[in-house]
Amino acid sequence: MDESDDAFDTDLELLVDAIHAKYHYDFRHYSRVSLKRRLKTALSRLGYDSVAALGDRVLRDRTAFGTLLDFLTVHVSEMFRDPGYFRSLREAVIPVLRTYPSLKVWIAGCSTGEEAYSFAILLREEGLLARTLIYATDINSSALSAAEAGVYAADRIAGFTESHRLSGGHTSLADYYTAAYGKAVFDRSLRENIVFSDHSLATDSVFAEVHLVSCRNVLIYFDRQLQDRALGLFSDSLCRKGYLGIGARESLRFSAHHGAFAEVSRSDRIYQKRDAA
Length: 277
Fold this sequence. Notes:
This protein is an alpha/beta fold. It has 10 helices and 10 strands. 44% of the residues lie in helices and 19% in strands. Helix 1 (3-23) packs parallel to helix 3 and helix 3 crosses helix 4 (62-72). It is globular, with a radius of gyration of 20 Å.
């Protein structure tokens, strides 16, 4: 590594520490490879020639920090992403959830809301949405605002529709949105059972007992210590024999909490919390 790389790494660490101290957003245990890539993109897009210069602006201007936060957090999401995951939920998890008089589901790292709406649609199709409360959380307030609006580009709908079909959807996705002027607006009735809220897996604690946690393609951006913290939160929040779903490239294998879960679907990364005994 040359000297400029060393300087970049040093300034990154200083910026991360300063952001934590001033704004209480904790990126100290995020994957450095991913964080460096996103910070370099921010420097290029925002027109700064050094991390120090960007950091000086960010620490003096909360609006500038909000702009940087959009680069540091990931907003790659699709409705019914990895359809096999949702099909496995329908086949292996939904029959158990039907036995509860009321349900709580936590979508951790909900980004711009695609997964939250996917769950709302799945649960409505299975006759469970009316008795379910979905907590959809993220650290990025602008992403949460977009999620709450439920408006997506119309050219994404064909992909959403195909994934919904492959997930075992019983209805037409078109039943749940209105399209106009190049946008698709998802039905407000879906949002009646969703609570969008700020929550950090790095700093915040458990806020509810839930029957299912879905946190997909989030853990890959954390180091091992933060992965274990997040999985500990999920374990603590799950009711007895509750379910956990993670991303296709994620695993519990090397986690300190591996023993707390039994596999439901290895291929689709769905687990069930074991009894404490």
